[in-house]
Design goal:
5 helices; mainly alpha; 103 residues; single chain
Length: 103
């Protein structure tokens, strides 16, 4: 059986994706907003201590929303680590779905 292409405006799931793939995608987005390298952001690091401010959190939320992922500033600011954000995004959707949207 072959996978059919995703309908316009939707993302095709990435079948082998796991939470680490979501974390890596979040690191890329956040690093771009912070103007650092994704490798500089440890999954368990407090991103506020790394220089992430409220404006940058709003930009991350904007990027997530543009990708079709419901996210809020409060949720991300409450526990500002990539690991916590990954857990939050995976509530109610699979890593494959989230990873595809963030690709």
């Amino acid at each position: 059986m072959t996978n059919s292409p995703a309908a316009p405006g939707t993302a095709a799931a990435v079948p082998d994706a796991g939470p680490q793939d979501v974390t890596a995608a979040l690191a890329r987005i956040t690093a771009g907003v912070m103007k650092v390298e994704p490798e500089d952001l440890a999954p368990d690091a407090n991103l506020v201590h790394c220089g992430l401010g409220s404006l940058e959190i709003m930009r991350v939320v904007g990027a997530l929303r543009r990708a079709g992922i419901a996210a809020g500033v409060r949720e991300l600011a409450t526990e500002p680590t990539l690991e916590a954000w990954t857990r939050h995004l995976l509530e109610g959707q699979s890593a494959a779905e989230v990873t595809a949207r963030l690709a």
